[in-house]
Design goal:
- This is Phytocyanin domain-containing protein.
- One of its GO terms (cellular component) is Set1C/COMPASS complex.
- Its main location: nucleus.
- It is found in: Nucleus.
- Keywords: Disulfide bond, Glycoprotein, Nucleus, Repeat, WD repeat.
- The chain is mainly beta and about 725 residues long.
- Among the domains are: about 350 residues, Methylamine Dehydrogenase, Chain H (7 Propeller), CATH 2.130.10.10; about 70 residues, Sandwich (Immunoglobulin-like).
- The chain is built from eight helices and 47 strands.
- It has a nine-stranded antiparallel beta sheet with strand order 37-36-39-41-40-47-46-43-44.
- A hairpin with a 4-residue loop joins strand 4 and strand 5.
- The N terminus is likely disordered.
């Protein structure tokens, strides 16, 4: 895209999905300073660098000691280094051009976000925000760490203790916090769980100013604009706030030192708040007052004129765009996949988003042809017109034709090495040459290996901008209405089933025969071999059929099922259906893993192999209601009458489960808990209708890890 010929009358924000990038399962993204390279962290521990001009892979960085999912990627200022954090608690610093690992260090906690110091051309310092501890400054070369304060001390000395909370076993954990450098890295802006922005001199490890957020809600994200003039916060009250930075771009810490000398407040906390009023000024607030959406990955546009954020709701890929005055100008709707990460191109009106399935979508403007911009006398025709030629239109008059002489010296060599300086970049200091492009390595075409392309960039078909290229095709004859597996399972299966570097395959809906073969692998009642001539047909629920009024545990008693037997599900077509799921889907009342969804009103299943098979109904108005955040799935279990089980499976030590009341759920407060469990596999039997609330005491505040289960009475 050529910036000088962009129509200035069109809005400088994207409108449609132009294409998508595909390589494994990408989790997070980051542009270099000029937007010519895009780094993407993958679930297998690799960092892919895309050439954003050609949309091809320019470099692949992988440490043999790291095969855990990448949580964040960050470029150095001039693009020569890149920092990668992974879920195995490691930080790796890479040399981009050579592809060599400069240093690797391991922390005590998984790093959610890591940012290189912006003031150095070859930085070794970074700001790390662990998932369950206070932010810290890390020297990646030496491995030394300096923990930053996240709360103001009671003594009022400006050196704050770390935020801690008690766990059920009496140990201490940190309240998660977010942080970022200012433009030149002399100050760190930290957001804490009390809704305060702390401005910290990280060299002195001292709080220099405090800015309270009006709501006092937990601060989830802090982001500076590229020019450093504006700061953005995303808080737990579902509101994005924009602040104007009142400090100078350079030597801001010196200005704060001088400011402290002029303040005469007796109380140190009030002195810090007074200093905060000289540092940040609230400009605008953004929220969705109707849907009350929680925001994810908010950021500024490259020029700071636009603010974007993704919806944190599961199952939707929506991007909201506001101007800085607070007006919502556009909502971009993508495929029905959760949004994981988001980035605006530093120069062009392009947005790049990462979906739950690991695809990277590129959003661009929907340009309309404007030929009059190149030929002012060009006239556009709405319909065919007969053209009448002028009498002298094509007459040759060589005596009047004058060739305008060019001032360009054709003998001068053409400069193809130097890059023209772009005024769109805010930085004026260029102490080091930027790394804008990587040398391309041609990949020979091997016909028999076309299906194992290491990465691809694909155009989306016209008229179907919102569909995912990984969407499973619909079943036939009304069957198999849901996906064959959840997006998470699809990713796990893809990674496990393919070799390194192979692309993520499109998952297709199996045929009806395939569905039968899949379904016959498992069966809830035990089965033994039996000749087909003696096969028995069972109507599930007998005369009552498949509905919520039958005790299927009682119905199963005394029955022995054999291979060749037939299960018949008879029900009112509009009231129920039958979904065949795996054990996890049965235990969790979750239809994402279904092998087929049937709704004819009379469905039969032939048992051809020994094993277990599981069925649930996904229609609303049944016994078990399972909710997670804003999503709700209502179903009832085969072999289930008046009891519902909630099963929590997690990594022991990283999470736990606390049963709380409604106030504890809304406020992420475990004081009202009825029990805290941390076995890694906790099962709760819900015996009475009503609402039950669960939270994780480690991550409820920061990651909104909470669950509401509604058990409905039998109709």
């Amino acid at each position: 895209m050529n910036a000088p010929i962009i129509d200035p009358l069109q809005g400088d924000f994207p409108e449609v999905i132009e294409e998508y990038l595909e390589h494994g399962i990408m989790k997070c993204i980051a542009f270099n300073r000029r937007g010519t390279l895009l780094a993407a962290g993958c679930a297998d521990g690799t960092c892919i660098i895309w050439d954003f001009e050609t949309r091809g892979i320019a470099k692949e960085l992988q440490d043999k000691d790291c095969n855990a999912a990448i949580t964040s990627v960050c470029w150095s200022k001039y693009g020569h280094r890149i920092l990668v954090s992974a879920s195995d608690k490691s930080l790796i610093l890479w040399d981009v051009l050579s592809g060599e690992k400069i240093a690797r260090t391991t922390l005590e906690q998984t790093v959610l976000q890591a940012r290189l110091h912006p003031g150095s051309s070859t930085p070794s310092l970074c700001l790390a925000c662990p998932f369950s501890s206070a932010p810290m400054i890390v020297d990646i070369i030496s491995g030394t760490t300096t923990v930053l304060p996240v709360l103001i001390s009671e003594a009022g000395n400006g050196i704050a203790p770390n935020a801690r909370s008690k766990t059920p076993d009496g140990s201490t954990t940190y309240s998660p916090s977010t942080a970022c450098f200012n433009k030149f890295g002399d100050l760190v802006y930290t957001g804490n769980s009390k809704g305060e922005i702390l401005i910290i001199d990280h060299e002195k490890v001292q709080v220099r100013a405090l800015v309270p957020v009006s709501s006092g809600s937990i601060i989830r994200n802090i982001v500076f604009s590229r020019n450093g003039q504006y700061l953005l916060t995303n808080t737990n009250d579902r509101m994005i706030r924009i602040y104007e930075n009142l400090l100078p771009m350079k030597d801001a810490h010196k200005v704060l030192d001088e400011l402290h000398e002029t303040l005469d407040e007796a109380d140190e906390v009030e002195k810090l708040k007074a200093a905060g009023t000289k540092c940040l000024s609230l400009v605008q607030e953004f929220q969705d007052s109707i849907n009350r959406i929680q925001w994810k990955a908010p950021c500024f546009s490259g020029d700071g004129e636009w603010v974007i954020s993704g919806s944190a709701s599961r199952g939707e890929h929506k991007i909201y765009i506001w101007d800085r005055a607070g007006h919502l100008v556009k909502i971009l709707e993508g495929p029905k996949e959760a949004l994981m990460d988001l980035a605006w191109h530093p120069v062009h009106p392009l947005i790049v988003s990462v979906s739950l399935t690991g695809l990277v979508y590129i959003w661009a403007k929907d340009y309309t042809e404007n030929w009059s911009a190149f030929a002012p006398d060009f006239k556009e025709l709405e319909e065919n017109e007969e053209y009448v030629e002028r009498e002298d239109e094509f007459d040759l008059m060589p005596e009047t034709e004058k060739v305008k002489e060019s001032d360009v010296n054709e003998d001068d060599p053409v400069d193809i090495l130097n890059v023209e300086k772009d005024s769109a970049f805010s930085d004026s200091d260029m102490s080091q040459e930027e790394l804008c492009f990587l040398p391309a390595i041609p990949c020979p075409e091997v016909p028999e290996q076309q299906e194992k392309c290491v990465g691809s960039s694909s155009k989306l078909p016209d008229g179907n901008q919102s569909e995912s290229p990984l969407s499973v095709e619909a079943g036939q004859n009304g069957h198999a209405a849901n996906n064959a597996s959840s997006p998470l399972e699809a990713m796990e299966n893809s990674v496990a089933g393919e070799t390194e570097g192979t692309r993520l395959k499109r998952r297709r809906r199996p045929s009806e025969k395939g569905l039968e073969l899949q379904a016959e692998k498992t069966k809830k009642p035990s089965k033994t071999m039996k000749p087909s001539a003696f096969a028995t047909q069972y109507i599930v629920g007998d005369d009552s059929g498949w509905n919520t009024e039958v005790d299927y545990y009682a119905w199963l008693e005394g029955k022995t099922f054999y291979v060749g037997d037939v299960l018949v599900f008879s029900y009112v077509k509009t009231d129920h259906n039958v979904a065949m799921v795996d054990a996890s889907g049965y235990n969790n009342c979750n239809a994402d893993s279904n092998y087929g969804l049937y709704d004819t009103g009379y469905d039969t299943f032939t048992l051809t192999t020994p094993g277990d098979v599981y069925f649930i109904c996904t229609k609303a108005g049944s016994l078990c209601t399972r909710g997670w955040s804003s999503n709700l799935l209502i179903c009832f279990l085969f072999g289930f009458s008046s009891r519902c089980r909630a099963v929590f499976s997690y990594v022991k030590g990283d999470h736990n489960v606390a049963m709380v009341d409604v106030a504890g759920c809304n406020n992420c407060n475990a004081d009202s808990n009825y029990g805290v469990y941390d076995t890694g596999y906790d099962v709760f039997t819900l015996t009475a209708p009503g609402d039950v609330y669960f939270i994780c005491t480690y991550h409820c505040d920061y990651a909104d890890q909470k669950l509401k289960v509604t058990v409905q009475p039998s109709p």
